[in-house]
Each structure stands twice: as structure tokens, then as C-alpha cells.
């Protein structure tokens, strides 16, 4: 999964190991499009695909550590003073754990997705 800078804001992109990809202006649009395309392909091969997460969760935005990281990132780019060194280290460790948890969840959802 990737987030690119689009003409009208972020562009969310999801790709699989077999070369299929979908994108959208929101995580949900990209995820729904990817699922529809993936379901059509998998049904042709006799497999059924189902997922219990939405695009926001797929991209990790429901994770509290990711939310905290993004809030601090926005605050730092807005000119507010940076947090102290220990807080930054703690946040990096929490974010790394959150990313690992998200990647683990994603790989359980569909092993064909790139991590």
C-alpha cells in the first residue's frame, strides 16, 4: 500500500503480488475497488474473498499509535515546538510496533497483498 500526493489531495494505492492495483482519493475507495477487482479474479479461480476491515483500518489509520504519530507530525510541520527527545524515541518505538501489528493483520487478511 502507498499514499501519493495527488492533484486534489492524497491518492491511496493498494497493490498485490500478482500485479493488480487500485487507487482512490480515500482509503475506503481504494480498498473497496481493490476488493471488487480481487473478488472478480478470485471467483474466476474458484476462491472466495472476504474481509472484515475497511480501508481506513487497512491503511492503519485506526491504530492509536499511528493517529498519535500523525497528530505530532502535523503539529511539528505547523511550527509548534518539537517534543523532547525521549518522547520522540518512545513514539518511534510505538509506531514501529503499530506498523508491525498492522502488517501482521493485513497479511492474515489476504496473503497476496504486498506489505
Structure description:
This protein is of the alpha+beta class. The chain has one domain (2-109): 2-Layer Sandwich (Double Stranded RNA Binding Domain), CATH 3.30.160. The chain is built from four helices and three strands. The chain has a three-stranded antiparallel beta sheet, with helices on one face. A hairpin with a 5-residue loop joins strand 2 and strand 3 (21-24). This is Putative ovule protein. Pfam families: FYRC (PF05965). InterPro entries: FYrich_C, TBRG1. Residues 1-20, 96-115 are annotated as: Disordered.
Evaluate the radius of gyration. Answer: 16 Å
> So how many helices?
4
CATH domain class name: Alpha Beta
Strand order of the largest sheet: 1-2-3
The helix/strand class is alpha+beta
Strand content: 5-15%
| Helix fraction by DSSP (H/I, runs of at least 4) | 40-55%
SSE topology string? EEEHHHH
Q: Tell me the CATH topology.
A: Double Stranded RNA Binding Domain
**Largest sheet features:** 3 strands, antiparallel
Number of domains: 1
Give me the CATH architecture, please: 2-Layer Sandwich
Mean pLDDT: 73
Distance between the termini: 7 Å
Shape: globular
Pfam families: FYRC
InterPro entries: FYrich_C (IPR003889), TBRG1 (IPR040092)
Protein name: Putative ovule protein
Amino acid at each position: 500500500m502507498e499514499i501519493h500526493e495527488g492533484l486534489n489531495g492524497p491518492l491511496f494505492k493498494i497493490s498485490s503480488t500478482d500485479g493488480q492495483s487500485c487507487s482512490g482519493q480515500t482509503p475506503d475507495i481504494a480498498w473497496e475497488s481493490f476488493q471488487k477487482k480481487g473478488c472478480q479474479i478470485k471467483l474466476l479461480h474458484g476462491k472466495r474473498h472476504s474481509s472484515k476491515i475497511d480501508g481506513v483500518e487497512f491503511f492503519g489509520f485506526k491504530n492509536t499509535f499511528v493517529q498519535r504519530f500523525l497528530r505530532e507530525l502535523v503539529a511539528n510541520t505547523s511550527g509548534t515546538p518539537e517534543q523532547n527527545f525521549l518522547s520522540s524515541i518512545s513514539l518511534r518505538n510505538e509506531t514501529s510496533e503499530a506498523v508491525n501489528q498492522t502488517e501482521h493483520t493485513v497479511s492474515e487478511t489476504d496473503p497476496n497483498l504486498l506489505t
